[in-house]
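Changelog note: in this version the structure field was regenerated for every chain. One regenerated record is shown below for reference.
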Amino acid sequence: DSLLSYSFESSAILLYELLDKLINDCYNLIDQNSLSINQVEDVIFSNEPKKAAQQILDLRRNVINIRKIMQNHKNILSRLTEMKSSLVPRADLKKCYDRLVEHSKRIWEMLDNQKEMIEVLGSTNQSLLDNQMTAIMKTLTIFSVIVFPLTLLATIFSMRTQYTPLVNHDYGFWIIIGIMMLLSLGMLMIFKKKRWI
């Protein structure tokens, strides 16, 4: 192999080998991101969107950081393809650095795919969080609508004015409680009929 014959004689080939090792290590980072993406997907669809939110943010930061680094590398590697050496034939040197440029392009494409997947997961997770919040707000609204007339009824009967009904009745308290229960039940039935619950 022509590379091995130049390995210890040319700084250009030494630089190539160092860059080749660094770029190959990028694949490990991308593999780790892929595993994390799969884990986040499992967490999201196991109905734990709050837990997934932080993991998605971490993934976004990782991909952004690697993309920043690779953007600089792409520009530098393109310039290095024009490098000249007194020890290594120009064609061999260009072939080596062209291989690094190809690796950097492949890594960039993989990072683009991961970025898109993370954005989709983020949107899905946000939709699930919004649905949960909507369900909570719906429950609270229904609870408020039921409690408001009961509070009004209780306030009216607590006035104890001269003509307040059931105040002096032996079973007045239980009658009022019964009215409240019937009112609550009636409202729940109306909500169910309209498919609000």
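Spot check on this record: The chain has five helices and no strands. Helices lie at 2-6, 11-45, 49-80, 90-157, 172-193.
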